[in-house]
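Project outcomes to date are best conveyed with an example. Our students and postdoctoral researchers have been running inverse folding experiments weekly, and each run begins with a structure described purely in tokens. The record below, which covers 203 residues, was selected by the lab manager from last quarter's runs and is presented without edits.
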């Protein structure tokens, strides 16, 4: 089964930006003022290309065959058995092959999120005469314990580590990594930059 993990904050903000751009493009077309409008449209296009590359495209994809790390300008695919180690700090770092490293763009954990997770793990149960605690089912209690002290990045790192260990136990072959360029991001950024240069020259 395919699982896709993204930065929820970046994803939401990217779509907010796209809505903002759509409104402004409509306004610039309706109130077209010549060269200034062309420059503004080109700048909006360039910024939108960058937003796509750094906010919409990056994702960590878990498939049956392996891990696909989609970064702004390239995708690295690692078969599960080829993964040697996974560490999580503010980002997920995957070591594979001959001491090679893949740093995943998403999900990342901020210092604030990590501190919140630690507080959640060490928070004492609040009980008193006027306070009642809801009774949790065994499944809910197990989920609470599994997530205690962990950020979203920690949890995704655990999933990657578990799948890699399972693949090695099954005796799967450690096939080499495959790295491909993200031509859509590259073309968008190049075209957007060319439009900005052209608009500035015309202006």
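After processing, the design step wrote out the following sequence:
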């Amino acid at each position: 089964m395919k699982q896709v993990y993204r930065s929820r904050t970046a994803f939401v903000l990217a779509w907010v930006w796209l809505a903002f751009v759509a409104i402004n493009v409509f306004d610039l077309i309706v109130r077209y003022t010549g060269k200034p409008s062309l420059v503004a449209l080109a700048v909006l296009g360039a910024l939108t290309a960058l937003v796509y590359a750094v906010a919409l495209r990056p994702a960590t994809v878990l498939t049956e065959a392996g891990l696909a790390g989609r970064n702004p300008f390239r995708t690295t695919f690692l078969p599960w058995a080829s993964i040697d180690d996974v560490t999580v700090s503010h980002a997920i770092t995957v070591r594979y092959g001959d001491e090679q490293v893949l740093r995943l763009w998403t999900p990342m954990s901020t210092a604030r999120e990590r501190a919140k997770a630690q507080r959640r793990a060490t928070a004492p149960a609040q009980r008193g005469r006027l306070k009642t605690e809801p009774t949790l089912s065994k499944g809910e209690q197990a989920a609470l314990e599994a997530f205690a002290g962990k950020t979203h990045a920690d949890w995704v790192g655990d999933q990657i580590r578990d799948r890699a260990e399972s693949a090695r136990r099954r005796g799967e072959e450690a096939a080499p990594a495959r790295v491909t360029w993200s031509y859509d991001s590259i073309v968008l950024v190049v075209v957007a930059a060319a439009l900005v240069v052209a608009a500035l020259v015309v202006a």
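The mean pLDDT is 85. Residues 115 and 149 are 9 Å apart (CA to CA). The training component of this project remains on track.
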